[in-house]
């Protein structure tokens, strides 16, 4: 960072829950510092081009009338990882981001006595937005000031995207600022975003300016560097051959995806889950959980999950829902369980066939 006060890689709450809770190629932005290594807070998230501060990895995905998606346990609620990240942070990163390459900064401090602010260094933008790279995203948490999809002002801390033109003299001119679109249930981790075509064509660099002007312990924000994800369609990652857990409120909206099956009394393990928007998640998830006797009981007994960042194609500010990727849990040796080998046979009986009396509990018996 160029200018920082009160922000720290570990100033992030250990537990982050939505306020209204009822119960890849992930980057193409790099530092503009030629011939020198970027500082921790200016490094881009992992991406497909190592020269731009990234690495080969999972890609985000999109679907025209459905969603756009980006490729641990679900870390949207925070937590401590225990091992140092690229800038010394031990906090969990969301969306399966690579903590060895993606830095993070936050302003949460239980002993906070003053305000905090940080201005990052400039990051290079791609030379032009491609068909599969139409949006810039920033993973962030906390209450952040923004206008929602209905253009209603929402209070919070300031996180602004500044743009400019880097000239041959290494000076940045033609600067301006834009408000990132915020969706999801604050303060949990979500992806702020803006369409690249909203940034002036002459701009070739961007940076983030964050201001926490409150001394309230519960008022804070955290963020990772901006990235330009490579998007792919939802169907290209999760087609009908892959079993999924589709929440009942979203199932009819995804006819190309297949709900996990049952056979011979054995439940098929889903490989992903499609959830509704944030308000519906908080009210509809519990009855599907273990305590509610729902489908998530078997799915999460053998899986851990993380959210894949997702967007509605062409309507970037819309909270369409969410996608969680399930991964099988391993034992202490790092081995995942084998699929069940079902031994069965088919026997045809007449309608009056009887092998024994049905066992029925009699009145008074325990």
Q: How much is the radius of gyration in Å?
A: 24 Å
**Approximate helicity band:** under 10%
Query: What does the largest sheet look like?
Result: 7 strands, antiparallel
Shape label: elongated
Put simply, the count of helices is 3
Helix vs. strand class: mainly beta
Determine the strand fraction and express it as a percent band.
25-35%
Detail the poorly predicted runs.
20-59, 63-68
Overall pLDDT: 81
- H/E topology pattern: EEEEEEEEEEEEEEEEHEEEEEHHEEE
Question: Number of DSSP strands?
Answer: 24
Please give the CATH architecture of the domain at 234-328. 3-Layer(aba) Sandwich
CATH domain fold name of the domain at 234-328:
D-Maltodextrin-Binding Protein, domain 2
CATH class membership of the domain at 234-328: Alpha Beta
Plain-language structure description:
With 366 residues, the chain is mainly beta. The protein has a domain of 95 residues: D-Maltodextrin-Binding Protein, domain 2, CATH 3.40.190. 5% of the residues lie in helices and 27% in strands. It is built from three helices and 24 strands. Strands 1, 2, 6, 7, 11, 12 and 14 form a seven-stranded antiparallel β-sheet that branches. The protein is elongated, with a radius of gyration of 24 Å. The N and C termini lie far apart (70 Å). About 13% of the residues have low confidence.
